[in-house]
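Tip: read the tokens left to right.
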């Protein structure tokens, strides 16, 4: 057997030769529109902090107060002695924000998916998911042991034919459909009404990941399901607390019985130390802020900035805060990102395995905290690329 170090350096060289090597870039400032990196100050168009809440005074005040009330750590899992009132309070806030019976928080969206999907389906069941679903949904589906079928992105006809197939081939099995409300790398929306109707026709369940919808889509950022009046027809709601909500962690929301089941069966909930009460308090403050006039004003500012970028770039108005600029080749995307960085603009290249091979792109995100002058600077830099 070869030495581990030698073996890994061989593997890394292959990654590098494919133009896919990734490295970390530590930030020395709070998150925001301008961040301090080792290469200097850059204008940030890469963050999912869509409303500028990650460094917002309301969240910081809530976090400081929580430290004084509850300390920093939890010392145990939720089911042992780490369940703090701050967690239950956050879950109450999520429940009323999402207008559902109950919610359960997880330490991350990744953990929420990995715990929830295998708690709902297993061997002999079927999971049907959109081709562009996030890695955590794919991994959760694999971990469940269910048979997996993938439908082309947003193709409800193909979803319907998979549902028919599942019903014929596995008449006694549970069928779970996975979709996102806003797709994380393309920024487009799911045809949620048609998906709900399809899954209902075939008696399947639907889990909807609103990671990029919460805080952005619909009144007060309640998400796409609420916006379309479909909350009660989505069986399992998922959202993250670390993107537009500016903190970290995630939630699964829906019925009381779903919450109780996950407390008993979601392994990523059971076998992990409870997340910090400080984070729970910050996330709760973010959701409370969203429901105020100030919160709605931030969301409107985000929409205004997106409209401004669309106008300058002559694009259709984006459906979300994510604006992909498709380039195709991996090296092309890396080169464009590097050229923008030389101009002081941070716009990440997204490539395989985050997206399909040959579907590399710049993934730029606009936030409520950007100023019009900064959007203009971005638009003119993008124009020089072409
Ligand atoms: C970011 C993301 C997740 C994972 O959430 P984390 O809290 O970052 O682990 C899940 N689903 C989608 C669609 C995402 O974009």
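Filled-in amino acids:
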């Amino acid at each position: 057997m070869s030495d581990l170090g030698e073996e890994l350096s061989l593997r890394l060289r292959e990654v590098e030769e494919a133009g896919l090597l990734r490295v970390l870039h530590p930030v020395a400032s709070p998150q925001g529109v301008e961040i301090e990196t080792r290469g200097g100050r850059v204008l940030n168009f890469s963050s999912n902090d869509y409303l500028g809440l990650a460094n917002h005074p309301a969240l910081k005040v809530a976090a400081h107060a929580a430290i004084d009330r509850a300390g920093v750590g939890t010392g145990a899992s939720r089911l042992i002695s780490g369940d703090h009132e701050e967690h239950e309070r956050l879950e109450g806030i999520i429940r009323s924000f999402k207008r559902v019976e109950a919610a359960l928080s997880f330490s991350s969206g990744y953990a929420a998916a990995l715990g929830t999907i295998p708690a709902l389906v297993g061997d002999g069941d079927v999971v049907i998911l959109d081709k562009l679903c996030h890695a955590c949904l794919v991994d959760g589906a694999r971990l469940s042991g269910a048979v997996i079928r993938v439908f082309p992105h947003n193709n409800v006809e193909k979803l319907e034919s998979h549902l028919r197939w599942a019903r014929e081939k596995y008449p006694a099995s549970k069928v779970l459909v996975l979709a996102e409300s806003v797709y994380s790398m393309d920024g487009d929306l799911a045809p949620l009404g048609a998906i709900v109707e399809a899954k209902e026709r075939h008696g399947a369940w639907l889990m909807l990941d609103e990671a990029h919808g919460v805080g952005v889509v619909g009144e007060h950022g309640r998400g796409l399901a609420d916006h379309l009046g479909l909350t009660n027809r989505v069986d399992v709601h998922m959202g993250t607390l670390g993107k537009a909500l500016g903190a970290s962690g995630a939630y699964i929301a829906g019925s009381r019985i779903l919450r109780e089941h996950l407390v008993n069966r979601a392994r990523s909930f059971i076998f992990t130390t409870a997340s910090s009460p400080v984070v729970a308090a910050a996330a709760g403050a973010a959701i409370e802020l969203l429901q105020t006039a100030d919160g709605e004003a931030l969301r409107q500012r985000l929409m205004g900035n997106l409209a401004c970028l669309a106008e300058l770039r002559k694009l259709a108005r984006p459906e979300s805060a994510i604006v992909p600029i498709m380039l195709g080749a991996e090296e092309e995307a890396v080169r464009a990102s590097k050229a923008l960085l030389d101009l002081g603009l941070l716009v990440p290249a997204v490539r395989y395995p985050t997206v399909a091979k040959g579907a590399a792109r710049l993934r730029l995100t606009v936030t409520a905290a950007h100023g019009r002058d900064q959007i203009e600077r971005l638009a003119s830099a993008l124009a020089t690329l072409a």
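The pocket of pyridoxal-5'-phosphate is lined by residues 108-110, 134, 136, 180, 184, 209, 211-212, 240, 242, 250 (CB under 6 Å). The chain has a mean pLDDT of 96.
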